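Worked example

This section walks through a single chain of length 642. The input is the sequence exactly as stored; nothing has been trimmed or padded.
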Amino acid sequence: MIRSILIALSLFICSFSFAQKNKASGVKSYTPSDISTVSPAPYDYKSQKQFKHYTYSSFYLTMRDGNKIAVEVYLPKGLKEGQKVPTIMHQTRYWRSFQLRWPYSWLTKKNMVEPLYTFMMQFVRSGYAVVNVDTRGSGASFGSIPHPWTKDEVQDGYEIADWIIKQDWSDGKIGASGASYSGTTSEFLLTTKHPNVKAVVNLFSLFDVYTDNAFPGGLHNRWFTSVWGYANSKLDKNELPTKNKKVLAAVKGVSPVQGKEGKKLFPEAIASHKGNLNVNDGAMTISFRDDVAKIGGVASDQFSPHAFMQQENESGAAVYSYSGWSDGAYQHAAVKRFLNLTNPNNKLLLGPWEHGGNYNTSSANPGKSGFDHLGEIIKFFDFHLKGIQNGIDKEPRVHYFTMGEEKWKSSDVWPPRAENTTFFLGGNKMLMRRTDLRSKATNSIREYEYETYQVDTTVGTGPDSRWRSVAGQLKTPKVYPDRTKRDSALLVYNTIELSSDVEVSGHVIADLFISSNEIDACFFVYLEDVDENGNVHYVTEGLFRAIHRKLSTEPQPYKDVVPYHTFLKKDAQPLVPDEVAELKFDLLPVSYLFKKGHKIRIAISGADADHFRPMTNSQPLIKVWHTEQYPSQVELPIVEHR
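Given that input, the structure is written out below as tokens.
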């Protein structure tokens, strides 16, 4: 019982736990379809376990400025004299371990309440030391947080790495890993260019703060920043961000470090967090990439990994970018990281998962994930930190899962090679290839120059979404379960029934010609699958604020494979009421198989009230044009299955 309570709490505070169970709740004969048997190759790390038990210690490390950081160390028990091991370093903002109330504290070993206990123990048993850290201003550490990933927090990582290599159990090789916030702390550790950090696994984490999380498409992801800001403010006060009575009865708060001094200093550490700022308060004061938040006093690029990618490349470390198709916009973050970091040993993995990899969210087979996440991570570290020739260097650099087909595929590049095929939005709400335009059966499509859509700012996507996933609040593999109903309030375009299977793998590009009676508008474009029974299945989406529509010819801050918009204030272009404007933007990357007899659908909305702040104070009347002069279209990266 206590383990289930702790897992529930760890999910809530955006930590990650790797699902290894194959039984899906409520499904009698569920078999996971995301198990990999060939590529990526399964890794039998369990047979290589060298240790059964571990030793544990926790203490304060004093940084260069006198600030104390709470650290805990797990070591394999039974190391021979002179035996040294590599280290996995994890820096978290979400409490490195929990302090239990009586009688739960009496029923379990103290350090078994670490939210990543299973993850850590697998590494320790495989012959690694694990160093787990409360980042500056969080948990039992001292300090304050004016904004995420401060320079001081990053420098702390360097000093902790320096401490590690001086220990008599360290062989001098360090790997770093984490998910969500701690994935980004691992990435920022690379920017310090510490010579002993040899490999990093970035799990379910952002690359560009502005576009990957806070303002995708220039739209404020207010639901996330508000929930995240609230949760952090509670944690920083040593309080739980939950109303779950079982959790509140079991968990007292973050664990102090061991010893009398640790307990004595603990209240002072918590008190030092009073200076922490709520990220949502700052986000509510900005709209553009270069806006400086009125609360916090920084622009997002000042604490965004992409702004430091040169230092990451100079580190020389190997990087594994790892995400899922329902992981907010972090699968695009993983792609961008892979495209911009240059080490030839870097890898990219994109599965059918939410934030954390617990579920396969493919509509074809939703349920618990069966993928061996730990095996894949240990395989990467075993090669780069231990020199074990396990074949990972012989595998293709990219692995991705095609939903619908329920199949793993591999490539040496991203996006995988496909034929970019244009589908035009037409009259009668049809979605047509160029050959369809010439068909006598569709002559009537030119009778309508545009479709009119009245924006309803109360429209949303519901709670079971990719955006809730990033805050650990997606509790089901069945994402977007009611698209059939919700599409009734949207503007939709459908193809005819497909004559063969069609695989879409890569980045869908929307090119819309629109007019509005207002100077700004928000657009949400959904790619969907309509099955033979008329049921609608969500595939992916793109979102975009019209004021950002200028396609920039300036040098991009990083490589990408989609239209480039700066999101800078100087490039803002308000709409001219009732004049046609072109909006060209990308949908979040995906790999999906549309089956023969199904229809491909594009659905257009002007709001997602469940997640995104309205960037205008109106409900504009939108016209989506589809004439020869203004040919609204989408470009799908297609591999046809015959």
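What to look for: The longest helix spans residues 151-165.
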